[in-house]
Amino acid sequence: MYRSSKGGRRGSGYRSGNRGGFRRSPVNVGDVIDVEIVELSRRGDGIARIRGFIIFVPNTKPGDRVRVKIKRIGRNYAVAEVAPSEEGEV
After folding, report:
1. DSSP secondary structure of the chain
2. Global confidence as pTM
């Protein structure tokens, strides 16, 4: 019997163990947070993780510790930019 890959649990946003919904993002647009870049994406952007949530940060590399500002949030990822350092830091 032929089964379509559309509909049912797979295409409807179901995540096993999550009762049919997507998990909520641990960050919001505009948040400024300190992160450590842990790996590179295929496109060359740095990747940071907060509680398993992926944050793409352009112009960074693994090992960088940076303060970032969240610019955009997708279903299971966010895009951030490096925030300017605060003046007066010691």
Report:
1. ----SSSTTGGGT--TTTTTSPPPPS--TT-EEEEE--EE-TTS-EEEEETTEEEEETT--TT-EEEEEEEEE-SSEEEEEEPPPPTT--
2. 0.70
Q: Is residue 73 part of a domain?
A: yes
| Residue at 18 is within a domain | no
In a domain, residue 60? The reply is: yes
> What CATH number is attached to the domain comprising 56?
2.40.50.140
pLDDT tens digit sequence for 4-59: 555 555 444 434 444 555 668 899 999 999 999 999 999 999 999 999 999 999 99
